[in-house]
């Protein structure tokens, strides 16, 4: 069985930066599960997994646009410091969480004053050439309910 639309794929990954240093990994934890073909995974990762079988191990370095997005220099904005979540005292370079109309978003503090802060809304990993070491753990056909909901259920997926 190969990874294709309407299949639930579970995989492990290790994310490495341009120098090969590990940024994050789920090794030793539960595999990530997603419903293939339903926009639940970064396009660069889903494209790399497409057609692979369970047990496949490979590395891929997708373009930034297909992972965390291209870096946009115009993505800075000023917000009240009371909207920043995650610390009591803010300094430039610190990550913060802000609530948006689309839900919570991680931002980076660029400059902070007494009442206002300048934040960078780019994802911290945007614009970078990152390598993903992937191991496809298993693949199964999705249930009708998963397809109707547009995501996988169970371990590593969505919990209702």
Automatic annotation (TrEMBL):
It is an enzyme of class 5 (isomerase). It is found in: Cytoplasm. It catalyses: [protein]-peptidylproline (omega=180) = [protein]-peptidylproline (omega=0). It comes from the Bacteria. InterPro entries: PPIase_dom_sf, PPIase_FKBP_dom. Keywords: Chaperone, Cytoplasm, Isomerase, Rotamase. GO terms for molecular function: isomerase activity. Its main location: cytoplasm. Residues 4-71 form the PPIase FKBP-type domain. Its EC number is 5.2.1.8. Also involved in hydrogenase metallocenter assembly, probably by participating in the nickel insertion step. This function in hydrogenase biosynthesis requires chaperone activity and the presence of the metal-binding domain, but not PPIase activity. Belongs to the FKBP-type PPIase family. This is Peptidyl-prolyl cis-trans isomerase. It comes from Shewanella japonica.
């Amino acid at each position: 069985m190969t990874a294709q639309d309407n299949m639930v794929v579970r995989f492990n990954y290790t994310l490495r930066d341009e120098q090969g240093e590990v940024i994050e990994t789920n090794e030793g934890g539960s595999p990530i599960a997603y419903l293939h073909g339903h926009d639940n995974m970064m396009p660069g990762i889903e494209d790399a997994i497409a057609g692979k079988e369970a047990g496949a191990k490979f590395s891929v370095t997708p373009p930034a646009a297909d992972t965390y997005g291209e870096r946009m220099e115009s993505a800075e904005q000023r917000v009240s410091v009371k909207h920043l979540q995650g610390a009591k005292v803010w300094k430039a370079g610190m990550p913060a969480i802000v609530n948006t109309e689309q839900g919570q978003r991680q931002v980076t503090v660029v400059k902070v004053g007494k009442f206002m802060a300048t934040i960078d809304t780019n994802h911290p990993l945007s614009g970078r050439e990152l390598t993903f070491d992937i191991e496809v753990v298993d693949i199964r056909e999705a249930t009708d309910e998963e397809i109707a909901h547009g995501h996988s259920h169970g371990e590593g997926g969505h919990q209702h």
